[in-house]
Amino acid sequence: MAKVKTNSVAAYAIVIAFGAMGGFSFWFWGSPNEEIIRLTTSARKPAIREYDPEAVKQVDQAAGEGLLAQRYAESVRDGDCGRVIGMTLWMQDRLKRERMLMPDAQREEEVSAALCESIQERLPEGNQFSDEGIDDKYIFGPGAAFVILGVDAGRDDLEATVRERVWIEVTYPGPVRAPKDHFGNPVRSMIVGVNISEDGDVLKAGVRGNVDIDLNSFSYNWSHEGE
What we know:
- By secondary structure, the protein is of the alpha+beta class.
- It has seven helices and four strands; from the N terminus they run H-H-H-H-H-H-H-E-E-E-E.
C-alpha cells in the first residue's frame, strides 16, 4: 500500500515538474500562436509611404493611367463632393451600411450631406499637419496644381487590393492657404500617393486623409511664388 502511495507521489511530482517546465517555456518563448503571429508580422512587407523615383514607372496617359487619381485630386480641390464620395471606398461603404441599418432615403441624404459638408468645409485650424496627418481637402486645396509623377504597386495593407498607386506632386499658389507643417511653416509643394483599388476606388491610407504623404518631399521655396 505504501509502495502504491509512493508511486502516486512520484507521478504527481513528475506532472508538476513538466507543468513548471511548460510554464517557464511559455513565459520565456511565448505561446505558439504568439510566435506564429510574430513571424507572420515580421514577414509582412512594410507599408512604404515615400516616393521612390526608381520604383515608379511613367504613366501612359493614353491608357488612362493616373487619370482616376488626378480626377480625384481635382474633385477634392474643387469641392465636387458628389464625385469625391463616388470615388472613395470608405464613403461608399458608409452609405451602404446606412442603407442596411435604416433603408430610408431621407437618412441616406442626411449622411451624404454630412459627408459633403466635411469635404467642402476648410477651417484654418485644420490646415496644419498633426500627429494623425491632415485631411485631403487641405492637401488638394484651392488653387493647387498637380503633376503626375508616375505609378508603383502601392500598399498591401489597405482595405482592398491595390491596382496601382499614383504619385502626384502638389504645388500651392501662395503661403496663406498652403498646408502648414508640424511647426506651422507653409509648404510650397509636396508629393503624395493615391492608392487605387482594382475596382477603381480611392482607398484610405491614413488616420486622416486617404493619401500617402512623403514627408521628406516638402519644399519651402517660395521665391517663385506667382509664377
